[in-house]
Amino acid sequence: MRMTRIEELDTIDGDVFLLRPSEEAYAALAAAPANEHRPSYMQDQHLRLRRAMERVGSADANWLGLCFDVPGPLDVDALHRAATAWVRRHEVMWGTFRDNPDDPDGEMTRHAIAPEELTLGVTPLGSHAGPEVNNVLLKHFSDAVDPIDNFGYAIAGVSGEDRSTIFCGFDHCYGDGFSVLLGYMELSQLYTNEIGSEPVEMPAVKGYMTYAQEERADAQQYDIDHPSMQFWADYAMDGVVAQDGFPMDLGIAEGERFWLIPMDYDILTAEECDRLEAIAKQEEATFPSVIYAAFALAARDLAGRSAYRFFNPVATRDTPETLVTMGWMINVLPIHIPVGPEDTLFEVARGVRQKFREARVCEPVPALRVMEVVQEVFGFSLEDTHRPAIVSYLDGRMIPGQEKWAQDRFHGTTGQGYDDNVNVWINRTPTELYVMCSVPQTPTAIENVNAFFTYASDVLRGALTR
Questions:
Q1: Residue 80: helix, strand or coil by DSSP?
Q2: Which residues form the Condensation domain (predicted)?
Q3: Which residue has the higher pLDDT, 61 or 353?
Q4: Alpha-carbon distance 75 to 258, whole Å?
Q5: How far apart are CA 80 and CA 73, in angstroms?
Q6: Would you state the pLDDT for residue 58?
């Protein structure tokens, strides 16, 4: 599975069908009063960022999606039943957010309908060749995935002769990267069940909005005396002399944002990963820590940096019921990796391993709760358009169903937008280690991002020759 822009997919020719909440569902939503559910911490910062971007006439890449193949012509009625069951299963899909002029802090209100009121309509969009299918879906999905006063998601199907493709897109308020995997697993299982091929029983699930209230209530116990506050403060102080974000020049002036393009890099083969993991163990490091260490060496050797800094997402799906929740269920850990002029790969890797161990003190405390408590230390405002860069590591070998990804041509998809930084997703699969990233479209950024990951790959391969 690779994250791919819709317009770059190798999509089949076929008849296109769009599934969106029906007029009746929208009428019920329009009449729904604000309920007691506050946005989660992640939803709140995302909604504020969206409004901040609108104020400067810009937009970020704020939505995620997925697509996968099913055999034969599409059974549109079966897809309709499967999609209806899926959106009714997940609480976050039942509603939207609205501006609240009465809230002095600018927090939006949540409005939702009962799941039995959530019905879907099917709109035929005509027959199209593959590239035109991509353009049609990109337009409709971009229009649909607005989480403000709207059901911010859409599902679609493309019916071909020998195989068909199912698509889904949703604003980040409705899910995270793991939700992409979850959506693929559940929609494919529900569709298979509806066409009679294979019965399925969905496990119990906790609603994301219910979880969000519990998270907020739990977070109130953490105050300035919690050790996580000191860890974050140390990260902020380290940042006085070590810059956040992608370590090389992106050719972007202060205040500029450029159109994002997806780029990916093959780093190691599966066999090379296995060898490197064995060496890392001998060196009292871990495989992920060696990967991060290679990036730190690239930052030092190519950009003269004395540290590599980023936010690392960690999942908060710690119960069986939240494991299968559609929602933005992550926290972020601040990681500062110092790298000296003569430090070797495995010396840095051991430091990375220790840093991640120390950062665990931050795991139970939502990062946005930290900002509430010590906001003035960081100079961080929820109302501006800047967010720190993310560097994420995912071991896809551990995910159930990954053996079907290639057969089903499963892809994650992303929206379009602007940014001034590079977000990085490191992915280990049964066949390779690769990096996906969203890169501002400037010649300098494209050249330097390519140089950075090429250098890091060379460093890692060099370690295999020892």
A1: helix
A2: 66-361
A3: 353
A4: 41
A5: 14
A6: 61
Cα 363 to Cα 281: distance, rounded to the nearest angstrom: 25
Q: Which one-letter DSSP state was computed for residue 264?
A: E
**Is there a contact between 18 and 110 (Cβ–Cβ < 8 Å)?**
no
Alpha-carbon span 162 to 116, nearest angstrom? 34
Beta 258-269 vs 391-395: how paired, if at all?
unpaired
Q: Residue 464: pLDDT above 90?
A: yes
| CA Rg value for the chain | 22
Coil, strand or helix at 312 = strand
Token duo for residue 155: 């599902």
Distance CA 157, CA 443 (A): 37
Rounded to an integer, what distance in angstroms lies between the CA atom of residue 74 and that of residue 217? 45
Domains and CATH numbers, the chain: 3-212 (3.30.559.10), 223-463 (3.30.559.30)
The span from the CA of 32 to the CA of 315, in Å, is 32
Question: What per-residue confidence (pLDDT) applies to 275?
Answer: 96
Measure the CA–CA gap between 286 and 307, rounded to whole angstroms: 19
Distance of CA 211 to the CA centre of its chain: 19
- Decide if 131 contacts 106 (C-beta within 8 A): no
- Residue 119 burial by Cβ neighbours in a 10 Å radius (0-12, 13-18, 19+): middle
pLDDT digits (tens, 9 = 90+) for 7-39: 888 899 999 999 999 999 999 999 999 999 999
Tally helices (H) and strands (E) across the chain: 13, 16
DSSP one-letter string for 24-78? HHHHHHHHPPB-SPPPPHHHHHHHHHHHHHHHTT-----EEEEEEEEESS--HHH
N-terminal to C-terminal alpha carbon distance within the chain:
32
State how beta strands 109-112 and 14-21 pair. Answer: unpaired
pLDDT tens sequence across 129-166: 989 999 999 999 988 999 999 999 999 999 999 999 99
Reported as a single tens digit per residue, the pLDDT across 90-137 is 999 999 999 998 888 889 999 999 999 999 999 999 999 989 999 999
